Amino acid sequence: xxxxxxxxxxxxxxxxxxxxxxxxxxxxxxxxxxxxxxxxxxxxxxxxxxxxxxxxxxxxxxxxxxxxxxxxxxxxxxxxxxxxxxxxxxxxxxxxxxxxxxxxxxxxxxxxxxxxxxxxxxxxxxxxxxxxxxxxxxxxxxxxxxxxxxxxxxxxxxxxxxxxxxxxxxxxxxxxxxxxxxxxxxxxxxxxxxxxxxxxxxxxxxxxxxxxxxxxxxxxxxxxxxxxxxxxxxxxxxxxxxxxxxxxxxxxxxxxxxxxxxxxxxxxxxxxxxxxxxxxxxxxxxxxxxx
Length: 291
Hints:
Layout: H1 2-17, E1 27-32, E2 39-43, E3 50-51, E4 55-58, E5 65-67, E6 71-72, E7 77-81, E8 90-97, E9 103-110, E10 123-126, E11 134-137, H2 215-231, H3 257-278, H4 281-289
Antiparallel strand pairs: 1-2, 1-10, 2-7, 3-6, 4-5, 4-8, 8-9, 10-11
């Protein structure tokens, strides 16, 4: 146990006397992609010299690659031309280790996201050397610091004032004519009750009267019928008081059923009286039964 503790303490002492050398990765600091003369700038943000022969540049394709060479001092810059390899509309630039293709730094632009695609007079770069903020620089600072470069600011479009819509007036409601019920319509005419027409039944003296031995009896019976009609309160309408209505042969007369019944009774009575007066019952019996 004592030997293990002693070995651990010795290891700590050796680490204090001989500190290990730190490893610093280089960074992509600026690039140009707008024309055929593409290039990439590498920046060393560490305190020691970086051997660039351990690194290469790649883009989105599997075939395009640029193996780096030389070295870059601490806080130093170096650039590499990569003729017409970067797409103008957008691409992805990667700095990878040659040994295992692991990515140590990358930046995208244009249609691949990140910053916008730079034009022919612009470049994409870090706002300050080694910082995390990528911007569009107004002019190239290839091989030198970005700290004093002007950052491109696109002009702010003046917003177009939206015209205030004109308020549409509310349409006036046109009243609909509703049918007026007869009970509520003051103009509605009241239906008049038809006037009852009363007709007086009288004897027409112009009709010819058949004369016989029984004319006096027939005249008496007719008078009885006339008196019966008067009892029924059959009078002349005011407008036709002077007009006499014919009793016999008229097509427009409407007789009461009681009047007809009374006339029939009178007719039977008169006929019976006539027979009794002019014939002998014995003679009638013998004529009927032939005896």
